[in-house]
Amino acid sequence: MRVLFSVFPAIAHVHPIVPLAWALQNAGHEVRVAIHPDAVDLVTEAGLAAIPVGARHHLAGVVEFNSNFDKLDTLDDALALDTRNNPRWETQWQMLLSTLSISTPILPDLVDLTRRWKPDLVLWDPFCVPAAVAARVGGAAQARILWGQDNIGWLRAESRQHLASRGAAPHEDPVMDLMRPMLLPYDLEYEEELLLGQWTVDPMPLGMRLPLDLPYTALRRVPYNGTAPVPDWMIERPERPRVCLTLGIGGRGRQLFRESGVSFPEVLAAVAELDVELVASVDAGRLAEVGSVPDNVRLLEYVPLNHLLPTCSAIIHHGGGGTFAASVAHRVPQLITPMPFWGESVTARYVADQGAGLLIRNDQFSTGTLQKQLVRILEEPSFQEGAALLHQEMSDAPAPGDVVPVLEELTARHRR
Fold it and tell me: Does domain 232-395 have CATH number 3.40.50.2000?
């Protein structure tokens, strides 16, 4: 069959689809990835075929986040969702609908693509709602593929319950403002599956999945972190415990130092005082802040975590989904200071609850606390045991290759 992925043009959105796309190709299916013209390299460097959609100026600001780390300072916690206590859900839902609307202009290109290439299945990023409409026009089955917890599904459920409780008319539903401009040109009526998919491919561990009455297909998140040569020093385990420090490549993690009041050089110095080898992945701007580098510290602009983590005894990070998945895959205990953007706080709490690591709130982050918690993780065997249990939970989900026949069956059922 022919499978079209539609992906939001950001590294953190492209990387999660790669293992499933590979699995589909390895099973003999044709795979294409529709993405912004200036983000095609994120797809092609993974060995996948990219199809540019949309005008270059459209979403140009989003694409810039992939290479201009200064723009990350504009990110905040407005969309961070914690379902245990969320009095601001209505404001978040309005903001999220506004965010989803920025992809509307790519709809004509996607419709043209589904009509010409005629995919059997469209798998789309939750931020690429026009892909569901294009699939309907082209007669394809369609499903969302998540890259984090299903905030959109949860907020939509809250909104529908709220609308029903006050007897709101259909035109009062704020979703109509998002969907109407996409539906009218093709004479379509709104259906909930055009917002939430005919089903959803969910790579979250079962214990982290939100309690929603939606059809989900479980998928083990096999981490993909980009490509780079493996240096000689990374082949074998070091003599001292190796600790990775990474704050992500496309999210809020890099704001930790500003919000905590603890500088990057201070963090390096604190960890370097321990009997460890520290490998810190940082951007060039952060490297410029560092004067002398301790002998037991390596500073790298970028390193794929899949290469590094098999040799690590612990990782320090901000709660990002890709870093979490890679850490779990390699059974590495985690020390997380969550920087809320989407679901980072939930991730950190889950890791701590499973005994696979510890968390430090960013308003309590200090060099002393960092040293103390890192020593615990390195010296107490229970954290390694917790990391192994978390790894087993993730491994219990179907691997990408095992999900392919499930997608084949669902496609046959839903294709028009």
Answer: yes
